[in-house]
């Protein structure tokens, strides 16, 4: 790791995760790896997202091994949090948890949503200084 | 798919891919799925990124099945492109291809970089209207 890269601790990762609402989920679908943008919310020490019936839902039921990523950046720094974890479909009597967090669909959809929980097993956060490396590229 | 979601054709996907330089790579590492932010550039009909020796490189050499995602959004719309494809390490005599595209590391790193190419096998682009769904949430 270079001097321009800084490791974030778990608290800093959770703070970033709580501050965003849009990330990307990577999951297995049969032998393939897939990735999809998802709206999510932090609920205690886990992440919740909604999904209609379909490949994401089928995928995590068949293979709960997932990875999740968020990132934010401006001109000077980039911050990324990567979560490895286990996904599970919430039971009907748990799905109300999604009502208590700011988990809003970005597009209006008249479909039934299932709530999936990602329980992190490993979390990695990085802050990258972006200002320095450009300087040597400038004429 | 709801009225608020629009499918992008391949040309529109390539245009979005050429317009960005930062995406997320999902890959297999043994039995696990992993995700990592990467800087990339479009070179003809493929994507190039650089990586140091490490898990990303090992992963795509061991299992070339990958997925890649970019997204951009503003207050009114979100656009996302998802690429499923095959990754391969460029040979030494091909690595110069990375010199001809705007593939710049975001952080300064004094390490040898390998160039990996992703050849898309399937591309999916979506544009989401974000303005409408919020209205019903407003008091």
UniProtKB/TrEMBL annotation, chains A, B:
Matching entries from InterPro entries are given as: Pyridox_Oxase-rel (IPR024747), Split_barrel_FMN-bd (IPR012349)
Please tell me the species this chain comes from: Nocardioides jishulii
Protein name, per record:
Pyridoxamine 5'-phosphate oxidase family protein
């Amino acid at each position: 790791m270079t001097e321009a890269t800084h490791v974030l601790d778990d608290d800093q990762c959770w703070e970033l995760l709580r501050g965003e609402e849009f990330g990307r989920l990577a999951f297995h679908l049969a032998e393939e790896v897939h990735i999809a943008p998802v709206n999510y919310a932090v609920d205690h020490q886990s992440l919740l997202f909604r999904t209609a019936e379909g490949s994401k839902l089928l995928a995590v039921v068949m293979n709960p091994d997932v990875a999740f990523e968020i990132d934010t950046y401006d001109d000077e720094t980039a911050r990324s949090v990567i979560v490895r974890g286990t996904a599970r479909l919430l039971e009907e009597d748990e799905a109300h948890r999604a009502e208590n967090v700011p988990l809003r669909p970005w597009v209006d959809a008249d479909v039934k949503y299932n709530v999936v929980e990602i329980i992190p097993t490993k979390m990695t956060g990085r802050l990258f200084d972006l200002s320095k490396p450009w300087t040597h590229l400038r004429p």
